[in-house]
Every structure is written in structure tokens, then in C-alpha cells.
């Protein structure tokens, strides 16, 4: 089974006559429905490595794409606290699609992070009323796109080696440096245009359906009036502008947790149904679910994920409150304290998630290594994206806070 165009239509019918959820719990339940659909053929779709058009249509039909959008334009008007839990729930069924959705939420919020009030209103009405999906050509490790002025326009040119959302997005966030200056400029543009050329070259170990390949930006023209946060060609700077990094780092941590939860859930179902007890240990059991080492193993792994969930939920509530508060209120110290807590949550779920994705083989048994079972997808997905930035630096950030009461200086990664 794969998510074809015809299947997408029938899946859209699933919610056609249903009232949208009216609270956070309802939206998380909706996300779990989506995850259950995705989980059915996640391994097959991962191996096919096709651009996830059908999967994105599923996100749109379910209403998850406009979760953070204003109610007056048809959105759910939900908070980031809910969004993080929705990302986690979707990633439980398919880590790639959890990432696509999480990045979409961050880029959909990008206008609020840096734009003027008028720009925010225009962008949120556009994407919410049309259920548009965001992608982003904003990989900071690459040389920035070059921006040159042409009268009242800006022209973006260059290349990014990663652009999550790629061909399946409706809108793309561009970021570059104005020629002859050190001024960074963000702008939101339609994806479908001649000047945005995706290579379709994302063929990595994991997160294979994130459409994260390279992109060429060839003379994409943007009015100066669309330069996010600029008034009379001057950027209006706030500490709030720098929340993009901690916000997306917590996106990462939540879809890592979702992947790890999916791994444990899939493995435990396999153990209940197919794992055989060991007959040569002198303590023979009738079922694998009676084996002491199997019970101990699952108990240890679940305990770690419950602890990770508690930490991520707590810091998710903290940053959500700040993201929805007036932008002028945020201080550098408060921003830094939240970033440290997010770093702590991320480093824990990376370590614990990779342990879960590896340890489940010891608990399911040798037959579970069959490609038909597909348990490898969880480790591959976690291992791939957790290399986004070195986890050692997250540990250092937490250590500097504990020992020196220092908070991270905002960069593209802190």
C-alpha cells in the first residue's frame, strides 16, 4: 500500500464531514490518526524514496498544516505547546513526515519571528486560507545566497545543499546577505517559479521522504517591501527574532521522540506476536513476554522515553508561552535559559532514542532483522537527523549554564 492520488482523495473524505477538533487534545488525536495511516506503509514508501506529495495532501486534509494559523482565516489558532505534541505524534508513524510538518510550523511562524505586523498578517492569511505548506532554503552551513538590489526589488541568487520541503512545498523561505553588506534578509516566495530549481538529489540513509535535497536559486525577484522585518530598508531588531533556533531545535527533539516511541511501539508489537522465548537458559518460559530480560529491557527503554517526554513537554510549555507573548517582552537572559533547557532535552532524546532504536533488536530477536520487518527505519531516521549539529556542543551549553551561569549567545545553531 502506498499513498496514491486516489488514496489521498479517500483519506480526505475521512474528515470531510467531520467537525475540526476544538481543543489541543482533539488535534493531538487527529495527529495520531494521521500517524496510524502513515505507519501502514512507512517502510515501503521510505524505500521507494519518492517526493511525498500524497503524504502532504494527507497533512492538509487532516487540518494539521493550518494548526497554528489564525482562526479568522480557517486555522486552528492553536499554540506551539500543541504543535510540538502534534509533530511528535505524526513522527511516531513516519519520522520523515513529522520533520516536514515540524519545519513547516517553524517557517510558517517565521513571519512572526522577524516580520512587521503588516507582513505577519499578510503571510498568515495567505498560507492559512490556502493550506499552503512551507519549505525553507535556509541551510546556514552553506554560503549565503547573494542578494542584489534592483530599484525597489531584491534579487536572490545562489545554492543551498539542503532545502527541507523542497518540491512538495507551496511557499519557500529564502535567506541571504545583501551584496556589499553583512545584512541578512529573509523573504517568503512562491515555490513554483522558474528561478527555484530543485535537484531532487536527497537520497540519504534516513529521513528519506523529507524532500531535503539541494536547490538552485536563480535570480528570484522579491519586492523590498517583502523583506521580512525591514522598514525603509532598516531591520527592526528584537531579541524575539532569535527564537527561530531554539524553536526549531525543540522541533527536532520532538520528532526524535516520536521516532523513538514508534520504534518501541513497533518492536513491542513484534515481541508480543512473534518473538520466541529462549529455551536453553535453564529458566524456560512459555512466551517471550515472560522472559525476565525482555521485560527488563522494555521497562528500561520505556522509562527513559517517559522521562524525555516529561522534559520536552515542560520546556515546550515554556517556549510556547514566550512565542505567544508580546514580542517586545523577551529578554536575552530568558531566551538563553529556554535555549539551555531545549539543549538538555535534545541531548537526552538523541542518546535515549538511539539506544531504543538499537536495543529493540536484542528484545525482538534475530528474525526481526529481516528487511520485511523494517525495524531499521527508526535507527536510520534518528541517526541521520541527529547529526544536524554536534550534540557535544549542546552538552557544553548545558555545562556552561550549570558551572558558569552562562547562556548561549544566539547563533544559527544556539
Automatic annotation (TrEMBL):
<dbReference type="Pfam" id="PF02771">
    <property type="entry name" value="Acyl-CoA_dh_N"/>
</dbReference>
<keyword id="KW-0285">Flavoprotein</keyword>
<keyword id="KW-0503">Monooxygenase</keyword>
<dbReference type="Pfam" id="PF08028">
    <property type="entry name" value="Acyl-CoA_dh_2"/>
</dbReference>
<protein>
    <submittedName>
        <fullName>Putative monooxygenase</fullName>
    </submittedName>
</protein>
<dbReference type="InterPro" id="IPR013107">
    <property type="entry name" value="Acyl-CoA_DH_C"/>
</dbReference>
<feature type="region of interest" description="Disordered">
    <location>
        <begin position="1"/>
        <end position="22"/>
    </location>
</feature>
<feature type="domain" description="Acyl-CoA dehydrogenase/oxidase N-terminal">
    <location>
        <begin position="38"/>
        <end position="119"/>
    </location>
</feature>
<dbReference type="GO" id="GO:0006552">
    <property type="term" value="P:L-leucine catabolic process"/>
</dbReference>
<dbReference type="InterPro" id="IPR013786">
    <property type="entry name" value="AcylCoA_DH/ox_N"/>
</dbReference>
<dbReference type="InterPro" id="IPR037069">
    <property type="entry name" value="AcylCoA_DH/ox_N_sf"/>
</dbReference>
<feature type="domain" description="Acyl-CoA dehydrogenase C-terminal">
    <location>
        <begin position="250"/>
        <end position="388"/>
    </location>
</feature>
<dbReference type="GO" id="GO:0004497">
    <property type="term" value="F:monooxygenase activity"/>
</dbReference>
<keyword id="KW-0560">Oxidoreductase</keyword>
<dbReference type="InterPro" id="IPR009100">
    <property type="entry name" value="AcylCoA_DH/oxidase_NM_dom_sf"/>
</dbReference>
<dbReference type="GO" id="GO:0008470">
    <property type="term" value="F:3-methylbutanoyl-CoA dehydrogenase activity"/>
</dbReference>
<dbReference type="InterPro" id="IPR046373">
    <property type="entry name" value="Acyl-CoA_Oxase/DH_mid-dom_sf"/>
</dbReference>
<dbReference type="GO" id="GO:0050660">
    <property type="term" value="F:flavin adenine dinucleotide binding"/>
</dbReference>
<dbReference type="InterPro" id="IPR036250">
    <property type="entry name" value="AcylCo_DH-like_C"/>
</dbReference>
<feature type="compositionally biased region" description="Polar residues">
    <location>
        <begin position="1"/>
        <end position="11"/>
    </location>
</feature>
